[in-house]
Write the structure tokens for this entry.
Amino acid sequence: MNKVENNKKNLTMDEIKHQLFLMLVKIDQICKTNNIQYSLSYGTMLGAVRHKGFIPWDDDLDILMTRDNYDRFLSLDKEKLMGFDLLTDKDPKYNLLFAKVLNPNIEIKCEHEDRYDKEQKLFIDIFPIDYLSDTEEEGIKIVKKSNFSLCLLIAAQWKHFYVNNRHKFLRQIPRFIFFLMSRFVSSKKLIKKLNKNIKHEKKKYCYCIALNRAKIEIFPSELYEEYIEIEFEGKMFSCIKNYDQCLKIIYGDYMKLPPENKRVYPHSYDAFFINECQK
């Protein structure tokens, strides 16, 4: 976009990626200092493996932690967060099942910003991974059952319905239905209901409770027991050792590039420093 917001020049996409990378470096330092284990995840993991950095048409960063590490990260005192803010479901205006690490110095303006109450800052998502079941079949049933509540929870965050151009027209119909239904539900009650699926005792399979993806993704729990260092934009970061199996579950033939018409940035937002002196 690269427009001017309140007389402040928007960051270019390369500048946004650089700021996200600097955030990731700090998060890595925080985790190592406090003995918290994490892994690059989803598109960030794929980018590290296939591109040794950002996927050229990606514009965010994701990391993942097992529930015990996730809870410990969220419990860190403010002074241990190296200037970052944390956004979690303890915030009355934020009702998603994953946390965001926020850079308080960089504000973002999303294409559909009015759908959220919370002022937005440049962020990195932190997803929890939870024990699910001892059989894949049982796990699939649990996830299918919980997806309805998760769709309601996501739709409940929108102040207004909006058409997501990343989805085909027919996909907009159920989105609109969930939006209408979500006007009559309590987000906090939905979170409480979904959290009942969290298993604290060890199970053979695990999943990310926070995500509702078109394909149900259930992972062997042993994937999150061993970690290695992997290169991302010239620096080494933590990643699960068996990233190959994980990426195959999520993306299939993950080394194959998508068609050129699919190589587009998944989000649409402007970003700018709140104070120019903070650059």
Remarks:
- The chain has a mean pLDDT of 89.
